[in-house]
Amino acid sequence: MVASEYTAFENPFLQPGRRPYFNGTMICCLERSPLPEHADLRVLVIKVLKITDPLVPLAPLPPERAMDVPVEGALVSQEGSPHLVRVYGSRPLRQLLLDAEAASASDSAPPERLFKVDV
Questions:
Q1: How many domains does the chain have?
Q2: CA distances from 14 to 96, 106, 109, 111 (A)
Q3: What three-state secondary structure class fits 106?
Q4: Would you call 114 helix, strand, or coil by DSSP?
Q5: How many CB atoms are closer than 10 A to CB 62?
Q6: Measured on CA atoms in the order 84, 85, 86, 87, is the torsion positive or negative?
Q7: CA–CA separation, 40 vs 90, rounded Å?
Q8: Most CB contacts within 10 A, which of 26, 49, 59, 63?
Q9: d(Cα 71, Cα 88) in Å, to the nearest integer?
């Protein structure tokens, strides 16, 4: 799990045994998915804002994980598709989604929820 100031959610960079696939650190934020096919879904994506400590692969990625190497300014993705954070029971994630929708309706930028990922 990745702990943020508000909630915890699945870390896509951990192997099933909780060991990381990469070693490094990056600053990320959660935001509403910009993709049209997600317009009616309650999902967020993870955007890499800055890689502060270069990511070094520690283990080969198995095909079922196939996380793409993170790139600054890009979404965290798996086989080219954004990794989705589904918003169901988490009140903080629901609030983030609502904030993003309200900002979109008013043409203002939503408040960013930044977090550091030590992978």
A1: 1
A2: 24, 37, 31, 27
A3: helix
A4: strand
A5: 10
A6: negative
A7: 18
A8: 26
A9: 28
* Digit-coded pLDDT (tens) for 16-43: 777 777 788 888 888 888 889 988 888 8
CA atoms within 13 A on the CB side of 23: 3
DSSP 105: H
* Residue that is written with structure tokens 């598709």 in the block: 81
Domain that holds residue 22: 2-118
**What pairs with residue 31 in β-bridges?**
45
Spatial separation of the C-alpha atoms in residues 101 and 49, rounded to whole Å: 21
Which tens digit of pLDDT belongs to each residue from 36-59? 998 888 888 888 989 998 888 887
The residue type found at 87 is V
At 22, list the tokens. Answer: 């990469």
Structure tokens at 40: 């009616």
pTM: 0.70
Token pair listed for 110? 């939503």
Q: What are phi and psi of 24, to 5 degrees?
A: 155, 180
